[in-house]
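Model it.
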Amino acid sequence: MEAGGVADSLLSGACVLFTLAMYSTGLSDLRQMRMTRSVDSVQFLPFLTTDINNLSWMSYGALKGDGTLIFVNATGAVLQTLYILVYLHYCPRKRPVLLQTVTLLGVFFLGFGYFWLLVPKPEAQLQQLGLSCSVFTVSMYLSPLADLAKIIQTRSTQRLSFPLTIATLLTSASWTLYGFRLGDPYIMVPNLPGILTSFIRLWLFWKYSKEQDRNYPLLQT
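Modeled.
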């Protein structure tokens, strides 16, 4: 195998490994829900939006004929669907959750029907679907920044997950390189904000780690 083929295989493997590691961080929430038999402190919307994102990118991968995109996002969709079902099982107020789910799934299937039925040319389908996936991914990466004000105000990073931050950084970096290697801006560009927001969160961990250590003895007294 040529050097270029080896590099592509390693990069594809890195994308699969890091992305599945990022998705598996949700297993801690699943374990917590099963142990406590409740959904306290577990957010539902990230499960749902990630599931829709996975289904969208899986469609893009199928249209592009990219096995890496198909495998990663199919596996991610299965995991997110599992998290959603467990959340629904333990959630006491199921109606708002079901309403959110039906609404987003309805939007997804409407978009799916538009791309496959009303956009006749495969090239146009690929471009429009890739752009839609990119915009959705960027919004997902930027949404956690809404918590920055509370983190800075409380001088505490308890709202942040360090393993998820590292996994997001590695995942975003590997997909950025993968998109660059393929010359696909729809894969490369939306993952750049993931790198940026991960570094911001790492800076917050460094910035407020001493504050947490200083406050810990006070909490004990």
